[in-house]
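worker-3 :: picked DNA repair protein RecN
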Amino acid sequence: MRPRVEEVRIQGLGVIDEAVLVLSPGFTVLTGETGAGKTMVVTGLGLLFGGRADPARVRPGSDKATVEGTLVVDPAGRVAQQVQDVGGVVEDGELIISRTVSAEGRSRAWLGGRAVPVGTLTYLAEDLVAVHGQMDQQRLLQPGRQRAALDRYAGEDLVKPLRAYENVYKRHKQVADQLAELTARAQERAREADLLKFGLEEVERADPKPGEDVELREEMERLSHADSLRNAAEVAHRALLGDPMSSEQAMQDAVTLVGQARTAVEAVREFDPVLAGIADRLAEAGYLISDVATELASYAESVEADPVRLSVVQERQSVLAGLVRKYGQDTGVVLAWAAQAALRVAELEGDDERIGDLTREYEELTGRLTELAAELTRIRTTAAERFGGAVTEELTALAMPHARVVVGLTDTGDFGPHGVDEVELRMSPHPASPPLPLNKGASGGELSRVMLAIEVVFAGADPVPTFVFDEVDAGVGGKAAVEIGRRLAQLARTAQVIVVTHLPQVAAFADQHLVVEKAGDGSVVRSGVVALDRDSRARELSRMLAGLEDSELGRAHAEELLAIAAADKA
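worker-3 :: tokens ->
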């Protein structure tokens, strides 16, 4: 079962206050007076399938525009599976899609009762609908669109090689960018490596040790104040132990005085435990003072003024200070910088090897891309011949019997995201005219028919369940309009076709005729959608033909058109 749009509800969109469209499986046509809101129906369908939300389309006085569609789908088909993948539900083969656009520009979408990003609707639409508004004719003139059209027609034959090409192209571009960066920065990298090497040589010559700068600073302080340190130690030693060469001070040193205090307390310690504890502490103090005095004597003997060593220390400290000033806060940081610099030098010197590896890979990828691009060109060339012939055949059926469409492939000379081919649709309106690009060789009406012919060709090669055309017959009249109606009816045999038209010749071929009616009370204009029966269709076609619903001549012509269309479809 092919999916199709069964019903569309539109609220607050443009001049449409509220409208319900019940659509037939075949060919549905929408007509109405200028300004009635026919294009808003196409806009609503576009919104339903992920089209751009324009807050300017929200009806004045409404806070939002809402479009809700009911689609008939196969519960076991691909579309139903995609809906289930995003958490939506398909009930009894019916899928509900909803889209709102607020007057402030916010847009929301629901799929099968589940809120989804608008992009999900766009992705789903690829399997459901092809919407062609009036701007799509201009899009068809873009080279990228024409290349995409040809690729779509080529079908499965192109899918696998194109995917392989795109993967190789992506890597080829990455390698090219890396090579360009490495090559452009070659001089800069060389300068960086030289500076790092110079710094590493400085550090290597100095050979600093962790914490060495701190040790040298302490040693320099000692050497610079050797005399003061020695004198202080000797004075302290005499205060503690006295000067053995002087009898006058014998009774004034700290050891003697503490000894006297201890002797006095020891004599009576047995009478009070508190005093006994003090005696013990005096004994400890005496021992401690003696030890300190001994250390002071030893320290005084060890401290010597050494100008030579001081000079050595000052020189070494100057060397380390230079390193610290350039490469870190202390010798530990300097050594860490040196380790990182060595790694960076290795990396910079390894760039030459890396450039060589990347160059070889680039050449291999270029060769592979050349092969794949040639394969794409071969497939496209074959498809272009078939595509041009098929579109030309369709144009013959659309009252352009002498027109010929060809698809030109030009080698751009450089790899692009989709190959090396530039695709251009060209048309010659008659045999004496050389094929020209569509924007030069086709009028507005002819371009409309070319687009319709392309869609008819696609319908046979890559069918889409629903086609929506907004004034595909623009700039066309007479016999050509009849042929367009006939071709749309033929397309509707295999797909659902919804067409907005102003031509009665096209409308006569529809299986279902809807009219967008405009009503106004002087200040407010509203539009609604009405389904026509056989008699109402004749009156509407008469209006479209003669501008008068009750014109006898117009009515007769309308009846004739309906009879011709019915006979043709039969």
